[in-house]
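Batch job 17 of 40 flagged for manual review because the log was empty.
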Amino acid sequence: MAQVYFASARVGKWRYEDSMPAKLERLLKQVDLGSYFDPKEWVAVKTHFGSQGAHRIVRPTFLRKVVDGLRDVGARPFVCDTVRIRGLDYLEVANYNGINHLSVNAPVILADGIYGHDNIMVKAGEILGEIAVATAIHDVPAMVVCSHVKGHIQAGYAGAIKNLAMGAVSAGHRHCGWKCGRGAMHAIGEGTLVWDAEQCTFCYQCAEVCPLDCIDFADGKLNYDNEKCWRCGRCARVCPSNSLELPGDDTLFMKSLAEATQAVLTTFKPKKVLYVNFLTEIQPECDCMPAAEVPVMQDIGILVSDDIVAVEQASIDMLLKARPLPSSLAEDMEIQAGEDILGRLHNKPYHIQIEEAVRLGLGSREYELTTLE
């Protein structure tokens, strides 16, 4: 049975030792980082840099605790993500959100280079075939995956699996483009943007949110660069009139997340990856969007495990017990206590990504929870 370690977000006494940063420090000592990571070994600390406007990421203070814990056992960590907007702009976003060498005590890099083309093709299963894994993640011998647990308009639930499936894979490949990158997951099916001109209100939010400037309305209609597009789907997500659609298949998408995660993990030896899930500021949408929503659930705490399925299942089990917060999207949708909040928000079968991960042998849904005292 998999072991999952938990520290509550609640503070028992008003002292540093009961703060969440201190609890994370104690959690990392409890799991014994030295049993996973060797002296002088390079270790990737995979996180999400967020976006300018989306600030509810894993906070730099927590990343610093992970880095310091790795340094204490002699490892050499670096903090990373992959290109989600133009690379240099994304590094500026990381700094804007407080993630830099000074704050986290480690180099901060883009694992697939500033152009997002520094990747290696890895076999990825029946749906994807192969996928472009970021070179720095492919080549590094060990990794700590720091995931901000939240909702996601496509995945429904986003945790460690989504963090690796989309965050350790490049947006595209220099030769086969989005079809070899995370765009292959975003757009299972035809993968071509569909525009309903009659419904369009010409608010231009789609053009404004596109990270690659693929959309314009120069001649009074939507012009879309099909070859340049990464298939991130932001345009369709922000469209207030529902005049844009990026066709997909929920079941295949969830399964492809597990496939891509497996592809990433095949580049590591057993027991060289540790997962830290942060159940904090649980907002309804991904951290890549240009704004952060009010959290729909109260902060719960931090979970740590070396089993990706177990840490995901434990996270979901805790979310299912949480109450919806007032003055949030959950209240707007009249979600009641005892309901699956993320399930109601997005109406996506997010459990499939966990089930497929089990089928692929990535871990166990059975776990033993050890709570930090």
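Reviewer: the log was empty due to a logging misconfiguration, but the result itself is present. Residues 39 and 77 are 11 Å apart (CA to CA). Unflagging and moving on to job 18.
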